[in-house]
Amino acid sequence: MQKTYYSFSDYVKNKFGVKVGKISIDTDFGCAHKANDGGCRFCNLNSYKPPYIIEENINKQWINGVENYKRRYQKFYAYFQLGTPLSPLASKESLLYANKLIHFDNCVGLMFGARSDMLEDNVLKELNGLSSSFNKEIWLEMGLQSSNDETSLFINRGHNYKSFADTVKHIKKNYPNLIICTHVIFGLPKKFIDEKNIELESREDMLQTVKDISSIEIDAVKFHQLDIVKGSYFENMYKEYHFPVLEEDFYIDLMCEAISLTRENIIIARLMGDSLGDSLIAPNWKKSKGEIINLINKNMKLKNLYQGSNFIL
C-alpha cells in the first residue's frame, strides 16, 4: 500500500540504500528529571527497555543488538534511549560511549534521548563536531509531548513550550549537523475536573501541538498514544480517578488529521507507541499496531489527505 506520509523507513532507505534499525543502548544513568523533580507522570523507563539489554558493557550491548536484529536490518543507529543520557551529570560518559560506537562500520549514526532544558552548549558542540568528523548522523530525540502549557504542568513535564521552541531555534542556528526529532503524546490529561474525574486534552489541543511543532525547525516527529503503564505515577491516578483513554478508532481518525497538518518535509518516525511486555494497563486496543497503521493510511486515501495537505505556516 502506497504511503501517504514521509516515514522513517522511507527516509533511511533513500539515504542509505538498505534497511536501517535502531539498537537501544542503556547507560544506566536513569532519568535526571525523575531524580530532581519526580519525573514525567506518564513514564516508567522499564516499559521501554528491550529484553536484549542484559549487559552493562556498551560494546556488548551493541553486539547483542546487532545479533538480535541482523536478519531484519543491514545497518543500525545506536539509540541512547533510556533516561536522560545528555543531562549534565551523564553527558560526559555518554560522549565517551558515543565516540566508541560511532567507529563501527555498520553504525550509521547515534540517537540520544534529550530534554530541551538539560542540553549544554559544550555537549551540543561536541556532538555537532562528531557528526561532521565521521560523516554520520546524530539525532536528538527531544520530548515535548504537548505544546499546551497547562497539560505540561499537569504531567510534570518540567518545561513549557516556549523554552522548547527556543532550544530548537538555538540548536538549528548554532549546531546545524544535529537532527531534531520531537516526541508528541495524544490523549494526555490536562486537569482535574473534580475529586473523581480527569479531563483529557481536547482534539483541538492535540492538533494545535501538531501545528506548533510544524511551525518550528524540527526534522522529525514521533507520535504516541498515551499508555498507562505499570510503575508510573499515572497508574495510581488511573485506579483512583475516572481517567479516560483514547479509543483506537478515534486515534486513527485523529492521526489522519494530524498527518495532514504536519509539514511535508518532517520525517514521521512513528505513528503510535507500543509499551513492552506486560507493562501496559490501558488502553486495551483490539487491533494490532500494523492494522492501525494500515487503517490510518487507508482512511487518509479515502479522505484524500496526505502529509502537509492541511499545513499552513
TrEMBL record:
Q: Which PROSITE patterns has this protein been placed in? A: RADICAL_SAM
Q: Which domain of life is it from?
A: Bacteria
Matching entries from Gene3D superfamilies are given as:
tm_1862 like domain (3.80.30.20)
Q: Which cofactor does it need?
A: [4Fe-4S] cluster
Would the keyword Ribosomal protein turn up in this protein's UniProt record? no
Give every Radical SAM core domain span. 15-264
- Keyword S-adenosyl-L-methionine present in the record's keywords: the answer is yes
UniProtKB keywords: 4Fe-4S, Iron, Iron-sulfur, Metal-binding, S-adenosyl-L-methionine
For this protein, the record's Pfam families field holds: Radical_SAM (PF04055), Radical_SAM_C (PF16199)
What protein name does the entry list? Answer: Fe-S osidoreductase
Which organism does this sequence originate in?
Brachyspira murdochii
In the record, what lineage is assigned to the organism producing the protein? Bacteria, Pseudomonadati, Spirochaetota, Spirochaetia, Brachyspirales
